[in-house]
Amino acid sequence: MAVHPDLHRSYVRACQSLGRPKNPSIARVLREADKNDKIGCAKGITLKIAGNNHLEPVQRVADDDLQVLVSVLCNTVFVTGLDLRYNTLTDAGAKHVATFLQENSTLRYLNLMFNDIGTSGAELIARALHRNETLAYLRMTGNKIGNKGGMFFASMLQINSTLEKLDLGDCDMGMQYLIATATALTRNKSVKAINLNRPLLYSQEEETTVHIALMLKKNSSLVELHLCKHEMKNLGVERLCEALYENSSLRYLDLSCNKITRDGIKFLAELLKRNQTLEILDLNANRIEDDGAIYLSEALVLNNRTLQALSVVSNNISGKGLAALAGAMKTNMELSYIYIWGNKFDEAACIAFSELIETGRLKPSRTDVEPYEADGQVHLAELSHGLKKHYYWTPSCGEVLNKEANASLAIATVSEH
């Protein structure tokens, strides 16, 4: 039987040894971990030392705090996850992270989103992953590592064979990084999910989308792909769809916050008629309008029996298109999650979705609207549900236990750590 560790006592000793003051947030999390019955089992635990905890007073983790923490954790086999999001770690802290990744052999999940790590810190972490053979999930979201920092991660993907999910959204990276990453993923067989959201692109030619499409033709391991805020237009969608006819692995495609219109949706609708693997399609914040919604509905009624979740939030769809989507759900029993808020509801659309919910065809936890009646008319109110509502934030009440409120977690298990 494994010996139960005393993380808090080890932390106090390390602070004294290194001459550093205790960080009360770290101390509290370690005390709680010491009480955890699961700490001695094979499953391991995740230490959640997030700087945006709404339930406890927080002293954010700085570089010196992290130096003490990793000295405690380096030889601790029970800790398999470390959540350090929304703290104040810089490139100096990234150096401690890199050292830890080279010395520790049990950490599988590391969340560094929205710290202050830059290009040199990205280089240190990426180089550490050349040799690390344990880490499966890394979140760098929101660290402004830039195009040069991204290139270090693209190079890492040519060497590392254990990382399964990499999140580099909102990192201020550009065209060079995206093309290099797409090229690396044509040969990388381990990455199952990647987030490439919000690059800084200055070209209107959609070169990056073309390279990503070429990658999808050759890659047979990628399950989840996020391309939010890529300035993608209808030509880019056409190239992606052409590639996905030859791809049989991708299950989750995120095209939210782009410039896709009804003409681009034609290509997606044709793809859905033949594709047998896509389960989640996120078209949030495009402009597909009624015609686009009808194209999707026709594909879902007649051909597709694979798609489980669809988001068309804020797409300038009026009652005609919304009613068509509701009608598709009456025929297609596989489509279980649908998100429609931010469009133009008329009475017919409100009644159509009200009937889906009242008859049990659409569960209230699997959509973002709830019917109510006022002055003898049916209306729809917004619910806080979506494909990835808690991607950036955790509600003030604590972690969300109901995965159905975040459909991507309920369907695509690769989203979890």
From TrEMBL:
Alphabetical list of SUPFAM superfamilies matching this protein: RNI-like
Keywords: Repeat
The organism's place on the tree of life at top rank: Eukaryota
Keyword Repeat: yes
TM spans (from-to): none
InterPro entries attached to this UniProt entry: Leu-rich_rpt, LRR-containing_regulator, LRR_dom_sf
Gene3D superfamilies in the record: Ribonuclease Inhibitor (3.80.10.10)
Name under which the protein is recorded: LRC34 protein
Gene: Lrrc34
